[in-house]
Amino acid sequence: MFFNTTINSLNENWTNIYYLLHHVYEEISHQAIRLLQHIEKNRETTIGDLAKYLGVTHNTASEHIKRLITKGFVSKKRSVVDERKVCVILTERGSEILYRNTRLDDEKLNKVLEGLTKKDIELIEKAFSLLSREAKKCF
């Protein structure tokens, strides 16, 4: 029961934080953002890895990547470790669009932080760091 209350509280607070502090979105699909996030978080990502991540066929993932290449968000390169492997990597433009569609707006966040004490800011940083660390262990 304790976890249900905590989970509800975390979700409610997170959705409020994100709703109020996010960047203005640029035109890009949710699935494209998920692909860009996966590429960013998992270096040496292949089309096969992306297909598995989305739960789609290799051909479907390949079509998604072709669209992202056309838009200039990703490119392909041979793996340094295994030259037989072709990896999908973020371009500078892809990194920028990913940042604007998944991160909090620095200016808005700065306004919020200005109203907090140093101790509160350190507490927030520690809580987010702890939550992030534990999430990485689970998945």
Automatic annotation (TrEMBL):
The alphabetized UniProt keywords are:
DNA-binding, Transcription, Transcription regulation
rRNA-binding keyword on record: no
What compartments host this protein?
A: Cytoplasm
| HTH marR-type domain residues | 1-133
Chief localization class?
A: cytoplasm
Q: Looking at the keywords, is DNA-binding present? A: yes
**This protein's superkingdom?**
Bacteria
| Family, as annotated | Belongs to the SarZ family.
Q: PANTHER family under this entry? A: TRANSCRIPTIONAL REGULATOR, MARR (PTHR42756), TRANSCRIPTIONAL REPRESSOR OF EMRAB OPERON (PTHR42756:SF1)
Protein name (Swiss-Prot/TrEMBL)? HTH-type transcriptional regulator SarZ
